[in-house]
Specification:
about 80 residues; 5-stranded mixed beta sheet; two-stranded antiparallel ribbon; 9 strands
Length: about 80
């Protein structure tokens, strides 16, 4: 099963949501860092903001101690805590 990440920027100037598809069983780094699979060149995004990692039941989202936090369905993900997606 592929993973689809939808990036939504809440800004009056924001474009339509961006949909990115990744291979199954791939850890997906999210951040401003050039090594992240999902690179978000936005000041509110940390260099290593979050990651999606495979787990037994699918994937988990993990905030990597980002400055502004990571949210899943409008609920903040606690830093370094795996939240099922």
């Amino acid at each position: 099963m592929s993973v689809v990440v939808v990036v939504i920027v809440e800004s009056p100037k924001a474009a339509a949501p961006l949909e990115l598809t990744f291979k199954p069983d791939e850890t997906i780094g999210i951040g401003r860092d050039g090594t992240s699979l999902v690179q978000l060149p936005e000041a509110s995004v940390s260099l290593r903001h979050a990651r999606l990692s495979p787990s037994a039941g699918g994937y988990v989202l993990i905030d990597e101690n980002s400055t502004n936090g990571t949210f899943l369905n409008a609920v903040r993900v606690l830093p370094e805590t795996a939240k099922p997606v």
